[in-house]
Design brief:
With 107 residues, the chain is α+β, with helices and mostly antiparallel strands. It contains two helices and four strands.
């Protein structure tokens, strides 16, 4: 799943209700799944980067995804959060389910 949020704000708490509302309206009837996930969050900015803690941004976005992509953010086995200069101000989120590990057993 890929999600793009246009614009930036220094208030990370703004993103949780925004993304949650999107999923509530656009993903009706979808069900989260179990397993491990990788989540990549990229904040792109123009000029000087906004003064925002990336860990707060990650927490807000993971909380918003909970119940839609996965049941709980404890399922996130890999998390990459970065900020970089871009052509416009936006937040890009990529979520993918990781393959299940091979079943234990011996030969």
């Amino acid at each position: 799943m890929e999600l793009e949020v246009d614009g930036l704000t220094t208030q990370a708490k703004y993103y949780k209700p925004l993304i949650h509302e999107f999923f509530h309206k656009a993903w009706r009837g979808s069900r989260p799944t179990w397993g491990d996930f990788a989540v990549e969050i990229r904040m792109e900015h123009i000029g000087d980067p906004p003064w925002m803690d990336l860990d707060n941004l990650a927490k807000a976005i993971l909380d918003a995804l909970k119940g839609y992509a996965f049941h709980d953010d404890a399922q996130v086995a890999r998390l990459l959060v970065e900020r970089a200069a871009g052509e416009r101000e936006q937040i890009l989120v990529r979520v993918r389910r990781l393959p299940d590990p091979p079943a234990a057993g011996g030969a």
